[in-house]
Protein: DUF4102 domain-containing protein
Organism: Pseudooceanicola spongiae
Amino acid sequence: MPRIAKELSAITVRNLAHPGHGGNVAHAVGGVTGLYLQITPNGARSWLLRYVVNGSRHSMGLGPFPEVTLARAREKARDAREMIRAGGDPLCEKRVAQEARRAQVTFADAADETVKAKSGGFRNEKHKKQWRSTLDTYAAPVLGDMPVTDITVDDIKRVLEPIWTTKTETATRLRGRIEAVLAWATVHGHRTGDNPARWKGNLDASLPKPKKGSKVKNHPALTLDDAPAWFADLRKRDGFASRALEFTVLTAARSGEVRGATWDEIDLVAGVWTIPAERMKAEKEHRVPLNVAAKALLEGMDRMGDSPYLFPALRGGALSDMALSACMKRINEARDSGYLDARSKRPAVPHGLRSTFRDWAAERTEYPAEMAEMALAHQVGSAVERAYRRSDMMEKRRHMMEDWADFLGAMTCQK
């Protein structure tokens, strides 16, 4: 008969410790024969049940402590002992059950659960939809119905290789998202082994580095000489899309930030537009000084019903990205020579207005480069410098944005 250990209390079990030398130690906690609390040298704790079946000794994990309480560990150990007395092997049964679960979970199932688990970590609903849409578009046709336990490196390559050099940015994000889905599957016991979507020491051996896959394409921008004429043409046009485009160029903001702007972000008295972190690319709150022209534009706007947006779509909600692009396209087509980027000779687009602003600050003013970068909500300086910088140069940037509006001819166009 095995020696029956003294039944320890929950407090005593909580105070058990590693002696500080040697490998793992196992403390018998009593209550059920063979039940131990195993403690590793680094302090990690887990439950262990030791038993004998057909003359062979076995050890079966019952979960981590304190996630699995002492009472629950004893309950699980008693169930295992009952199975042994009935002629079964709890460890064998556990492995069979795990294999069955793994076979039932497909990549699509794991993707659903991963999105649910990460739901609180997405910047906004749009980011959540983009995250899932990438998987649905590129990964699901190949991996969707496959059990996660069967997915290999070759399967990941079948997904990535068709777009790796043509849509490099999308492909690298996709790889990271597939890795996250398979990591979820591993953590929840649906697969074992290395993650086949891991980059370092894995896919990097057979795929070129992302930065060599494709070159970044600059957005076509207005030339500085064309900017005032383009702005005058814009001011002649009506509609929320035109006003949104006007506000975009006056603030040097991203079109997405403008399209999603709401009235509660605007302080007309102070002349400040505060964009919350969840709407910013860098996930950091950004304050925009409103020049006189931008304030006048907003003060002259008629609010549409109870819509919270500065520039709502006629059918409700925010304007689409295509609305601003279409407006800019019409302005370009109305001019005989068009408004073309100086290098690519392609028609200027909304995002290129930020490049025009940056060129203006560098070539036509004496404003510091870091001030222009702040206006564009770009990170300036090293992480240490950013940690010690307490000011966002708000008032200095206000003067710069007034000069920018003057350059565009905003005040002249208003008269």
In short: The longest strand covers residues 45-53.
